[in-house]
């Protein structure tokens, strides 16, 4: 079977914005008396802004104390801090091997998709200078369910006009691997501690065309 597309997560696969999300959430959480650490932040990877806030409030034992307008204000304060911090991103912020892989996929005429639930994804791709290397980016604004729901990956397949079973999905979060597997796509996980990935790599620099191609052949 021919590989029809490769679909990428953004945060933690294309560039490492997880710590910027963390710094922004930590500041907002601290202002309302909740202390979060990196370990807790790992549970927010792949989770939408609103749902991340709900989990932080739950973690702080004060979910019931905030009305929806107050939550909206907190989420938008977090986003303001996060967006300010994005100004430090440049082409140097692309994780190792990713630019080379995108170029190779283009050369081989294999379509590429983006499946990130971040509403800031288009801005980030532009800042990294690689927006034009994606055939289709799923619109996070039209998604109603965060990962591990497969919705964003299915939206990417839809936009590319490919079937999930003929694609490889690449993720760094457990929720993302679960989303990829749930739609029948072949999953590659980056980083330690991920379960049920079809292939697990320790770093993005291992994401070469020979590696993807061997994984695809083996999966047939
Ligand atoms: C990605 C990140 C999450 C983040 C989500 C929404 O999935 O892994 O940590 O909460 O995007 O990002 P946004 O930029 O829309 O707040
Ligand atoms: Mg990620």
Estimate the strand proportion: 5-15%
End-to-end C-alpha gap: 7 Å
**Uncertain stretches:** none
* Helix content class: 40-55%
SSE arrangement, N to C: EHHHHHEHEHEHEEH
Number of strands: 6
- Which CATH architecture of the largest domain would you pick? 3-Layer(aba) Sandwich
Total of helices? 9
Task: Name the overall outline.
Answer: globular
Mean pLDDT: 96
CATH superfamily of the largest domain: HAD superfamily/HAD-like
Major sheet size, sense and barrel closure: 6 strands, parallel
What is the CATH top level name of the largest domain?
Alpha Beta
| Tally of individual domains | 2
CATH fold name of the largest domain, please? Rossmann fold
Q: What strand order characterises the main sheet?
A: 3-2-1-4-5-6
Structural class: alpha/beta
Radius of gyration, rounded?
A: 17 Å
Bound ligands: 6-O-phosphono-alpha-D-glucopyranose, magnesium ion
Cofactor: Mg(2+)
Catalytic activity: beta-D-glucose 1-phosphate = beta-D-glucose 6-phosphate
Binding site for Mg(2+): 9, 11, 171-172
EC number: 5.4.2.6
């Amino acid at each position: 079977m021919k590989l029809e597309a490769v679909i990428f997560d953004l945060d933690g696969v294309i560039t490492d914005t997880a710590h910027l999300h963390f710094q922004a959430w930590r500041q907002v959480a601290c202002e309302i008396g909740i202390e979060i650490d990196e370990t807790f932040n790992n549970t927010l990877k792949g989770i939408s802004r609103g749902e991340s806030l709900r989990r932080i409030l739950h973690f702080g034992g004060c979910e019931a104390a905030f009305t929806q307008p107050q939550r909206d204000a907190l989420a938008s304060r977090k986003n303001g801090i996060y967006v300010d911090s994005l100004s430090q991103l440049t082409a140097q912020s692309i994780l190792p091997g990713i630019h080379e892989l995108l170029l190779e996929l283009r050369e081989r005429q294999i379509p590429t998709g983006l499946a990130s639930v971040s509403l800031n994804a288009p801005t980030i791709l532009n800042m990294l200078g690689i927006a034009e290397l994606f055939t289709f980016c799923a619109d996070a604004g039209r998604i109603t369910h965060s990962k591990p729901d497969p919705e964003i990956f299915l939206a990417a397949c839809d936009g590319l006009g490919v079937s999930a079973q003929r694609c490889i999905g690449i993720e760094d979060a457990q929720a993302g691997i679960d989303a990829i597997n749930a739609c029948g796509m072949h999953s590659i996980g980056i980083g330690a501690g991920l379960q049920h990935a079809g292939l697990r790599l320790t770093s993005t620099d291992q994401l070469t065309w020979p590696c993807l191609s061997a994984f695809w052949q083996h999966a047939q």
